[in-house]
Structure formats: C-alpha cells, structure tokens
Amino acid sequence: MANCTPLTLCLSHALIFHRWRRFRRVTVESFSKLTVHRFHPIQGREAINLALALIMNPSNPLQHLQRHAASIMLSINYDFPPVESEDDPAVVGITTHNDRLLYELQPGNRLVEFFTWMRYIPSR
Questions:
Q1: What is the domain partition of the chain in residue ranges?
Q2: CA distance 119 to 52
C-alpha cells in the first residue's frame, strides 16, 4: 500500500478537481439552454427511426431502445452518423460495458462482500 501523506492527497485531489472543473466548464457550455436547440433535429430523426424500428420489428423493444440511446449519444457527443443497426460495434460495445457495470454494482457479486478479511489482501 502506498504511503500517502496529507500533502500527496491534497495535490492529487487538487489535480483531479482542476481537471473535473475544466471538463465541467466545457460540458456546461456545450449543453446550456441556449445551445440545446441544435440537438432537436438529431432527436427528431432518432425518434422517427425508433418508431419505424418498433413498427417493423416489435419483438425486441429493448434492443431498439439501446440502439436509439447509443445513436443519440454518439451523434451529439462525437458527431457520428446515425447508427442504423443494433449489431453496430459501437452499440454492442456500449451495451456490453453497461451490462458489465450493472453486474458489478449488484450486491453479492464479489467475494469480498462475504469474506470481509479479503479487503486486507494486498493487490499486485
């Protein structure tokens, strides 16, 4: 375990806070009330695509909703073209990551929750 002094902790938190603050400023400027109107065409296009996908294949709405959410996020944040397929590598990657994250956050999926003494085993 690393030896952390109060000075080390203060410096690391200051660096993290400074970086967070810089990214927060960019995010607030990009998603303020004055600029959000730029996203209405993207949201409208994706709403039509979602409605058409649900009409054509209503058997799996969760997959359509995941594609819809990923497409809006990728279009707005990264200026990607609309995602047309549920099998797109970006959608599959996002979905896989979310599933893994949700699994890890559920209580009881880690041995350390049952054997509390495992907290003190040093990591590599």
A1: 39-124
A2: 50
- The H or E element that residue 19 is part of is helix 6-30
CB distance 71 to 82 below 8 Å: yes
> What is the pTM for the complete model shown?
0.67
What lies within 8 Å, CB to CB, of 85 at 6+ separation is 67, 91
Q: Percentage of the chain with pLDDT > 90? A: 32
Residues contacting residue 108 through CB under 8 Å, at least 6 positions apart: 114
Q: Report d(CA 86, CA 69) in Å as an integer.
A: 11
Count of C-beta atoms within a 10 Å radius of residue 25: 10
Residue whose token pair is 């509390």:
116
Dihedrals phi, psi of 33, to nearest 5 degrees: -60, -30
- Residue type for 87, please? D
DSSP summary character for residue 124? -
